[in-house]
Amino acid sequence: MRLKELAEHLGLSQTTVSRALNGYPEVNEATRQRVAETAARLGYRPNASALRLATGRSGAIGMVLHGANEFGPHTTEFLGGMGARLALEEVDILFTTVSSYQEELAAYRRAAASQKVDAFVLSSPTLSDERADLLLDLGLPFVLHGRTNIARPVAWLDIDNTGAVERATTHLLDLGHRRIALLNGIKGRTFSEHREIGYLAALSARGIPFDPALMGNSIFTDEIAFRMAQTMLELRPRPTAFPLACRGVRSPPPAPPRR
Amino acid sequence: MRLKELAEHLGLSQTTVSRALNGYPEVNEATRQRVAETAARLGYRPNASALRLATGRSGAIGMVLHGANEFGPHTTEFLGGMGARLALEEVDILFTTVSSYQEELAAYRRAAASQKVDAFVLSSPTLSDERADLLLDLGLPFVLHGRTNIARPVAWLDIDNTGAVERATTHLLDLGHRRIALLNGIKGRTFSEHREIGYLAALSARGIPFDPALMGNSIFTDEIAFRMAQTMLELRPRPTAFPLACRGVRSPPPAPPRR
DNA sequence: CTGAAAGCGCTTACAG
DNA sequence: CTGAAAGCGCTTACAG
Description:
By secondary structure, chain A is α/β, with parallel strands linked by helices. Chain A is built from ten helices and seven strands. Chain A folds into three domains: 3-46, 434 Repressor (Amino-terminal Domain), CATH 1.10.260.40; 56-157, Rossmann fold (3-Layer(aba) Sandwich); 161-234, Rossmann fold. Chain A binds a DNA duplex through residues 2-4, 12-16, 18-19, 22, 26-28, 31, 46-47, 49-56.
């Protein structure tokens, strides 16, 4: 069912039907009612491509993800919430998978040229995020999920990583602990830096010296965290009731390949 | 950069440039070269909406997911692989989030009418999958990730759930175990039924009676599995070294809300 | 081998 | 308040 057919069915012009459907003020209320009813009854839905071509808006927002690496529980939970919210506006999420940083940058250039999406959401920003600079240059709207320190202003949303880790560390200090480890994210990610700042602040506020052996930086997986924790505990062997075996991991997995 | 500009730049018609870019056989090889080079140099990329409108293909395949529920590690791993493969063909994944089964069906109808996607991938099929019937009726191509028992033939891909669980169960029987529990997926999902069949087959092959108390059906989360396992173990209390505490779960979480 | 023109299905000035 | 027509940026018969 195309607009043209719907218009013929109603004995109206495409113009009027289009306006009635899109809520333009100048159309007669009775006409609008009739159009709305008939459209609903006939199950009319505008062709997405035609609409996009005519309006210049794609009705989709994009995300580019790094293959399997980035599909952790965090990203997917974020995607779920984002999808639910965007569904209300009938905007879609279009995502592209890449396998390298170069590919990611290329994906943004491609998307800009082909006008597939109206905007992007970037996750896991680095302190000096090159992607943000690129999108700014390309004139593509975007919002950062996290923060970056590039000179130009960017839209972002983030939690208070520094405050959260500072309070968590302080809480453990309050309980009397003195050797507190930080299993942190990858070095260079903004959130990792922010968490480190919170951790160090809490320690120094109590005059506890920082022990580099108690801080690990890596990606967030059960296996890696397990290995890091185990290494740290071995530094000071003693019986522990801490449940290290998790998800079937009973011994440290082999080291990841290096390139 | 539009096709028209590129054509003017080259002193050719849009027609020829379009054909050169799309690999039509009738264009002169020298012309093709020149077009390809210039297009690359100028960073020309066809407008996605225009291309879709003209060809009738959307260049995207769709998935509809149930909000936060379905964003488990399994789905996301699947999405990652799918995205990587589709990226090679320059086809995008467009996903929509819904919060009920009714909404899911509505989403397919909408997608069919607006022609947003060329095909769908359905996951977690039920034994008698209504969605598959709907898509068949709508004439929308799709492939099932899993199987269903509806009468009409459908394209699907799946693993051998029955064989896998049968072998796993047999392995435990070989080790001398006799009280073997099955923490299974939701009742009614095809894969759950298939796994149950494998489990029962392995037990009966050794003449072990089936104990309903040792089979649980629910969604796959650490918390639920922990609770199910704990309940089963309490049936036969005895000291165990089995590491039940996982991911910080130390006591069973509250029961999920019922409607 | 190349091009002029119609068409894909919408929106939106412009005119009435 | 309504409509005829141009335009969005491509593809593709049709003609040469």
